[in-house]
Amino acid sequence: MSAIIETRGLVMDFASTRALDGLDVVVPSGVTGLVGANGAGKTTLISLVLGLLKPTNGSISVLGLDPTRDGPAIRARIGYGPERNVLPDDMRAYDFVRHFSEVKGLPRDEARSRASDSLYLVGLGEERFRALGTMSTGQRQRVKLAQAIAADPSFIVLDEPTDGLDPMQRDEMLNIIVEVNRKFGIDVMLSSHVLEEVERICDHVVALDAGRLVAQGTMAELAGASGGVEIELVDLPDRPDAALAVVDHLAAAGFEVRRSDLVVTVGGGSDADVLDAATAAIAASDARVRRLGLRRRTLDDVFTDDVVGATTRARPPTSEAAS
Asked: pTM value?
């Protein structure tokens, strides 16, 4: 299947700032998470996808078209939910969604029915005639999603769609996004700095840092593999140094070790070798184990290992390096 978005050597400069630096990205069909900290280049990439900016260098293709040349045609086929609160307070939700459906080219009667249908889909059917200024943050986020899907797009781009939502509202929003993709076949690119929600619903991930691509692939490729072995130790009042001793043994054996209080994560070898070494270190340290097992790698690990570079690597055993 052809890519929804494909870039080659994409560069975007603003004065003295390079927002995107030689980006090679492929976004396939499905739900894709675009992740990175603030300033990573996510919003710049979205603006290029929508044809709102012209790249400094390189190429970008969206739905087989060039956004620089075919911006209006692309925007007619893409739904967009912006991050910022740009909804007019004195306009009704129904009128807002209907208006943008007409802007996308739907006949007036069809735009009316699509506005109602999309607002019902996002759970605002009974609230559709309320003024936007009287709605909560969660309801306004749903209106932006309804607007994005009302004109039956091939692809939608959602910029921080859960921003400002409480945990229950966040779960509901994520469930709706999944339904939009699975039930209606609309491809989604979700921009977010919340790795947990991307890991929960996305099939594919593109990770940016300071304008550079640091990782891309399926969830199984990036976060599904084993993340080493995790040991949770028991706090022993008569052996307060037991956890440190376990870390020192494993570091001395050449493994990669991270410690957070009584939880020790070990990598740098095959699962079998790490398990054997962990068992030996626990026995040698006279420690007591609450839990010992393989650990699944998460997106947070991807950023810790590949982006931030903050993972503690194994060194000769010293109390400073191991604690």
From this structure: 0.73
